[in-house]
Amino acid sequence: MRTELDELIGYELTDPRVGSATVTEVLISPDFRHALIRLACTGTPQEQEDTIAGVNHAKQFLKHQLTERLNVFRMPELHFEAALPATLAARAPQILKRIKRGRPKA
Question: What residues contact 61, with CB distance under 8 A and at least 6 apart?
Fold first, then answer.
């Protein structure tokens, strides 16, 4: 399901709000009624929020396309969220740099 979603979001969505997004994780509930999809979005915090809003707007299209492509008994409701909150995503390069500097060299 992850690769199909990546293809759908990357190549078939025409919403201008949807920027570059990659599916990082798909969590499906035990009863197969809900699927939480985490997206790694690039850009400013506002662009990331716009990407999530655009993907949420296309939720029914994505669900319909996945139903056609996958052989499943029940297609879960799709719920999208950012893999990292926008504030943390903006600080991630700085945090990684600090971690790298703090490591002793082998």
Answer: 13
Percent of the chain having pLDDT more than 70?
Answer: 90
Q: Give Cα separations from 56 to 5, 13, 91, 93 (angstroms).
A: 13, 11, 25, 27
As its CATH architecture, domain 2-102 has 2-Layer Sandwich (3.30)
CA contacts within 13 A on the Cβ side of 80: 26
- Residue 58 has φ and ψ, to the nearest 5°, of -90, 15
Q: Three-state DSSP class for 25? A: strand
Global model pTM greater than 0.90: no
Q: Which residues of 83-93 are buried (b: 16+ CB within 10 A; e: fewer)?
A: bbebeebeeee
Residue 105 has pLDDT above 70, yes or no: no
First to last CA, the chain: 41
